[in-house]
Design brief:
By secondary structure, the chain is an alpha/beta fold. Helices cover 47% and strands 12% of the residues. The chain has a domain of 63 residues: 3-Layer(aba) Sandwich (D-Maltodextrin-Binding Protein, domain 2), CATH 3.40.190.
């Protein structure tokens, strides 16, 4: 009996974590990225290099670039409205973004750094 209770607890924990990990898309939000500002969203980590590249691009082209990084729950609603680019920290996270955000697709995803399989 105790084994079933532990198993049920683990299943509930997994369900709770998956609800946190994948955003709830808001159907009332219309994706309208054409605002003369480049809006980039993604997880923390790779954002340091992207911020530097965004600053250089802005100086050279005179186009504003906003990089918003961190937990997906922090930026998902805004990204649904105006994301021009979504970056992932791994192929796995990018695959999840492609599944979750209807304005992204596999054809447009471009891996920058491929890791060797182990």
């Amino acid at each position: 009996m105790r084994r079933y209770m532990v198993m049920a607890g683990l299943v509930l924990q997994m369900i709770g974590q998956s609800a946190i990990a994948s955003p709830q898309l808001n159907a009332s939000i219309t994706h309208q990225p054409k605002d003369r500002v480049v809006n980039i969203y993604g997880p923390g980590g790779p954002d340091t290099a992207l911020r530097r590249a965004a600053e250089a691009f802005s100086l050279k082209k005179g186009i504003s670039v906003n990089v918003v990084a961190g937990p997906e729950s922090r930026w998902t609603e805004q990204a649904q409205k105006n994301a021009d680019l979504i970056f992932g920290s791994s192929e796995q996270s990018m695959s999840a973004f492609i599944e979750n955000y209807p304005f992204t697709n596999n054809k447009d995803a471009e891996p920058v750094y491929l890791r060797r399989a182990t």
